[in-house]
Specification:
There is one protein chain. The chain is mainly α. Helices cover about 70% and strands about 0% of the residues. The chain contains nine helices and no strands. Helix 3 runs antiparallel to helix 4 and helix 4 packs across helix 5. It is globular.
């Protein structure tokens, strides 16, 4: 193996290790907010569901983040806040590893002859990383949303594997089955990562590093928080469309939400412009600090691995 190839493989291995660590820590801390976001995005004023402990379907409407958490704990149990966590836990390490690894590789491709990366380089590399990440994780997202939409108690909720087998048995692994909503996932992840990486790396370079470790930590956390928040605000219409496509349809047997932009148009027409931003509060609460956690953990783990294997 040539020295250049060895150096690349070593860098890639450190990027994978750092990205995987960042993703695993972030999902373990922030998953309940992701669940609340999905529940808020799936509901509308006419939603009628079967609630645990009741004989007939009834209307349960969530009025915000904390009301959703309160009603979920009351109706489904405290551990319901971690429904659907297994798919992201299983995929988060390879998902974030792929995100950070491909970002670094796309960054080289989008240099356009410049001596150093530009904001455009970071943004396009982030877009490419987001698209790659979305294609990898969409089947897991489909299973996760199915589990998160289930309002039964934890004892009654089927396992991750049972849900996966059911989806494959009923609809296959194609665009109507395990890969349903892949274009919405590509739009969501592509837009988010384009802004997330583009903003973080461009702004980070504009502010000098602090010699004080504590000040430097908060510098990175602050920039990461803003990057995650901006990405969340811009990409949420894609996220709403994804939840509607992958979640249970309003009328059983009828497919109301089929395509990404068609779903956005339907939500806008029937529920208004604000409905395209359903779940924004828990999304920002998760991906603002979550985005900061990922970038900071990535930077520090990568720095540690560089020193360890120098």
């Amino acid at each position: 193996m040539s020295s250049d190839l060895k150096a690349w493989a070593k860098q890639a291995a450190m990027q994978v290790g750092s990205g995987g660590s960042a993703g695993f820590i972030e999902v373990c801390i922030m998953h309940p907010l992701d669940l609340v976001k999905t529940r808020l995005q799936l509901q509308n004023k006419n939603t009628v569901v079967k609630v645990a402990g009741t004989a007939a379907p009834q209307q349960v409407y969530y009025n915000g983040v904390f009301d959703c958490m309160k009603k979920m704990i009351k109706n489904e149990g405290v551990f319901a806040l971690y429904k659907g966590i297994l798919p992201p836990v299983l995929v988060e390490t390879p998902k974030r590893a792929v995100k950070f690894l491909t970002f670094e590789q796309y960054k080289r491709f989008f240099m356009f002859g410049a001596d150093k990366p530009t904001p455009l380089t970071y943004s396009l590399a982030g877009l490419g990383a987001g698209v790659t990440e979305a294609i990898l994780v969409n089947p897991f997202e489909m299973v996760k949303v199915t589990l998160q939409a289930n309002r039964a108690t934890m004892k009654e909720v089927p396992s991750t594997w049972a849900v996966t087998k059911q989806i494959v048995a009923e609809s296959g692994i194609g665009l109507n089955g395990l890969n349903k909503g892949v274009t919405a996932t590509i739009g969501r992840n592509g837009v988010f990562n384009m802004i997330y990486f583009g903003f973080y790396h461009s702004i980070k370079n504009e502010f000098p590093e602090y010699q004080d470790p504590t000040k430097e930590f908060f510098r990175k956390v602050g920039i990461g928080f803003v990057a995650g928040t901006l990405g969340s605000v811009v990409n949420i219409p894609f996220d709403v469309a994804k939840s509607r496509i992958q979640g249970p349809q309003p009328v059983k047997g009828e497919v109301k939400y089929r395509t990404t932009f068609g779903s956005m148009a339907t939500v806008y027409k029937e529920e208004g412009f604000a409905a395209l931003y359903k779940g924004l509060t828990p999304k920002v609460m998760r991906l603002g600090p979550g985005g900061a956690i990922m970038l900071v953990v990535y930077d520090y783990v990568f720095e540690f691995l560089q020193k360890r294997f120098e």
